[in-house]
Amino acid sequence: MVERTTRRLADRTNFDVQRTEGEEDAGVLKTGTTTVAVAADDAVVVAADQRASLGGRFTANKDVQKVLPVHPTAALAMSGSVGPVQDLARTLKAEAGLYAARRGEDLSMAALASVAGNLVRGIPAQLLLGGVDDAGAHVYELDGGGSVLPSEYAAAGSGMQVAYGVLEGEADAVADVSDARDLALRAIRSASERDTASGNGAHVATVTSDGVEVASRTVAELAGANRGSVSAGRGDER
Amino acid sequence: MNGGSDRQAYDRGVSVFSPDGRLYQVEYAREAVRNGTAVVGVCGSNGVVLAADARTRSPLLADGSVEKLHDVDGRLGAATAGHVADGRRLVEFARRRAQTERLRYDEPIDVASLSTAVADHVQEATQAGGTRPFGAGLLVAGTTSDGPGLFEVDPSGSPSEWHATAIGGGATTARERLEDGYDRGIDVLAARDLALSALAETVDDGFAPADVSVAVLDGDGYRSLDDGERASALDEAGVRRAS
Do B168 and B200 contact (CB within 8 A), yes or no? Predict the structure, then answer.
């Protein structure tokens, strides 16, 4: 009875994760990916490229949405094995919805990050979580070990080193949300130029206390982008 | 069948309704709560007070062996009335639930969430086969970012929020005293005095300091009053037994 109680207490959705590592997982879709999250004062921008690849050598899908709203005021950018991470995003969204229904208020970003950290443990993935709550704008980096690290800005995925090259020195100077969006998209663009597992355009989520808006950019829109003009894209909000 | 044997049949299983829609076992469990000594909870503007009648049945029993007030996680507390063993199980559940909240959300639990979680657990025992209802009632209290909060959980598994209430033996008398004396604006000291005077309604001649347990739950967390503090609190409430 005690064990039954404890299990009910935890009330967690269980993940049966098939761990695949090294060469054996050549058949498993991986995102490769470049993801970026940048916090402005009262908003966060979360962006990712649109490529899914097999072992980083073959582009398996050119229009993957790797930035998803998971909470009324938070978006998740995912990189890693596609299946488990999609599952995680759905579960995280369900946890946020359950919490709101039970308690009449939304999860804080720290609490959402804590739930996400519990869910990602054991999954080969790197996540960026960006969101806004009463305490302001937040960015969290999470990985398959279960680490949850708050940050002002972050990049993840196979293109992260190129992306960080763009972010460093610039992210601190971000003045507002459109600055943050331009910077994030330039980071995605540069990584897409040099990282073979990233490319095919970008999705960018803009998170404010009013909600999450996800827009996409084509390769051409990204390539033609100079500082201050990247955000004038196609803007098909979802 | 006559009425008597009818009633026996509905008594047999906890999950069997009587024809008039009652669950006798749950009602008997409420009776078990009334058989325990009283506990009182009173919300003040800056904290909540829990007070319990903790008289021992023998002078040979060691001090503090009557556990009526329980620290749940350092912030929230619970007072139990009724079957001691059942009450302990519920407190253990509450403690686990409070820590689970920290593991999941990296945040402390609030009074309403903890109370509804305990209530849901209690409710399961009224509907599952092969078990019996909990013969204990609970007051869950604490001060969180939402301010002071006080909830009751009864053996049917219904949670209810109170400004001040009492459960256990003599609870009706104690609640009458609370209804007369309660004022929304009172501070935690006035709440303590009111709690003790309501508790004193359930006994004949007041309390010695060793006869009561008192806990203050404010912004600093759960703190139980020591012997000296209880003595002066009883004096200030005017319910200290002349010895």
Answer: no
Phi, psi of A42 (to 5 degrees): -120, 20
- Supply angle C-alpha A93, A97, A102, rounded to 5: 150
Closest CA to B215 of B135, B162, B121, B150: B150
- A69-86 pLDDT, tens per residue? 999 999 999 999 988 999
Identify whether A33 is a catalytic site residue. yes
Q: Minimal Cα distance from A115: which residue of B? A: B104
* Average pLDDT per 10 consecutive residues for chain B, totaling 243 residues: 56 79 92 96 98 92 88 97 97 96 94 98 92 96 96 98 98 98 96 98 94 97 96 97 81
ipTM: 0.72
Note whether A125 and A77 are within 8 A (CB): no
Residue A192, phi then psi, degrees to nearest 5: -65, -30
In A33-145, which ranges are E strands? 35-39, 44-49, 52-54, 58-61, 67-71, 74-80, 125-133, 136-143
Q: Which of B103, B104, B120 to mutate to test the interface with A (most CBs of A within 10 A)?
A: B104
DSSP-based three-state secondary structure for B222 = strand
DSSP A85: H
Question: CA-CA distance, A85 to B80, in Å (whole number)?
Answer: 45
**Burial classification of residue B42, based on how many CB atoms lie within 10 Å of its CB (0-12 exposed, 13-18 middle, 19 or more buried):** buried
Chain A residues within an 8 Å CB radius of B96: 5-6, 9
8 A C-beta contact, residue B233 and residue B188: no
3-state DSSP call for residue B193? helix
**β-bridge partners, A204:** A47, A215
pTM of the model: 0.81
